[in-house]
Amino acid sequence: MEGEVEDKRITLEEAVKLVPDGAHLFWGGFGFQRPPMAFAHELVRQGKRNLTIYTCGSEIDIDILAGARVVSKFELAFFAIEGIGLAPNIQRRIRDGSVQIEDYTNLAMALRFLGGALGVPFMPIKSMLGTDLVTRSKFKPNKVKVIECPFTGEKVALVPSVNPDFSIVHVSRVDREGNAQIDGIKGEDSEGARAGKKTIVLAEEIVDTEFIRSNPDLTVIPNIYVTYVVECPWGSYPMMVYNYYDYDMEHIRMYYQQCKTEEGWQKYCEEYITGVENHMEFLKKIGLERLLKLKARKPLGY
Fold it and tell me: What's the confidence (pLDDT) of residue 298?
């Protein structure tokens, strides 16, 4: 006889309240694809401070967190708004000294998450030997170590694994037990989710476990790694979720242009984040008609 199923569902507001000031977070998504945008907005609304975020590379989502002074340090491989320009808030916060950036390559960050998932303290990487990140890092002591391989004597770089306090991931669908499925590009979300001490999964929809079991190959984060589940439709807007909706380039361009100045950023934050009560009120402000135009068209998925 099967045991009773654990229901891990909580609200977005409850999930964000779990994150204390000073926490370290793995931040999921891959560029425009599936960033935890709604979680970022709620972190701003709740006034969180002094967070450290680990990610291979994110866009408006982390730019918002820098602008609102939620995050004081990023360990990442890149930050930008793809196809448009560099992230304006992050650039300003670096200049005013309120945000630190610790640079790695994309592969190095991916390996750091894999190392955390495997439970080992570091991971070897050869490609960083050909970069200035080994010799010119401004962070002391330099976290990238170069050693001689004990088996071959050749040089190899080592990067520290990451085991953050929380892993925040937005997925396509999940059941109430926490079995999470991702359509399309998965990025480092599987490794990042397993690396965290606790994992919060946001999803476009919560589905029955029977549906998850009928497509087991899509389940990239099993429930044993998931602490909490949040149903969050349109949770990556204005970015995209493959098979659900496309990105809103008009809104993204507006954000970029407006946030080139501190005054413009403050206006955006008040209008779209702190000036609305929650994620559903944010969606109402965007408008049903605009959202429906972005819905994925089958069989394309975007």
Answer: 82
Helix or strand run (H / E) with residue 156: strand 155-160
Side-chain-facing half-sphere of 14: CA atoms under 13 Å: 13
Q: Specify the 3-state DSSP secondary structure of 202.
A: strand
Distance CA 177, CA 189 (A): 18
In CATH, 12-106+163-293 is 3.40.1080.10 = yes
Count of CB atoms situated within 10 Å of the CB of 155: 12
The total of other beta-carbon atoms located within 10 Å of residue 107's CB is: 16
Structure tokens at 177: 């037990």
Closest CA relative to residue 237, chosen from 228, 225, 249 = 249
Q: Cα-Cα-Cα-Cα dihedral of 237, 68, 19, 94, to 10°? A: 110
pTM of the entire structure? Answer: 0.95
Tokens 């891990």 correspond to: 8
- Bridging pattern class, strands 166-174 and 145-148: unpaired
Residue with tokens 């970015």: 239
HSE (CB half, 13 Å, CA atoms) of 300?
7
Kindly state the average pLDDT of the residues 226-247.
97
CA distance 60 to 87: 7
Contacts of 150 (CB under 8 A, 6+ apart): none
Q: What percentage of the chain reaches a pLDDT higher than 70?
A: 97
